[in-house]
Design a protein that fits this description.
- The chain has a single domain, classed as Rossmann fold.
- 41% of the residues lie in helices and 18% in strands.
- It is built from six helices and five strands.
- Helix 2 runs antiparallel to helix 6.
- The longest helix is centred in the middle third of the chain and has 17 residues.
Amino acid sequence: MNKQFKRAIYPGTFDPITNGHLDIIQRACTIFDEVIVAVAQSEEKKPMFNLEERINMIHESIKLLPRVKVVGFNTLLVDLSDKLDANIIIRGLRAVSDFEYELQMGYANSSLKKELETIYLMPNLDHAFISSSVVRSLLKFDGKIDHLVPLEALKIIKKEK
């Protein structure tokens, strides 16, 4: 029996990467042969950290995960999936409020490319409340974020901001 190589894309803005994101990445590694963290440029979201900083935070945070790669992108996700030869998209769901938006996006992507499958993973309960927007809000007021982001990302954040 010839095992088929399974590559998945975990797209997002990751502004910044959180422990919730890292939890999803680690768990995806137990399911897929390769996980590509695709960092969206997302200028319309006006990210706090530029694309290079966000990619660097992720690179540093995943050093111990050899089957994870990081790429930046500024295209449609379906075009990126063609380029990377990956038809599986990973998305995280923290709460019911995430579900409606993620379902719409999954259907929209599927309407553009029938072969694209979206897999939804829930973060560990310890990380379910964490979002990048919560981290950014705390950063604006110099709040404590040590428990919300990977240590490697925290070092970069403290250097950059």
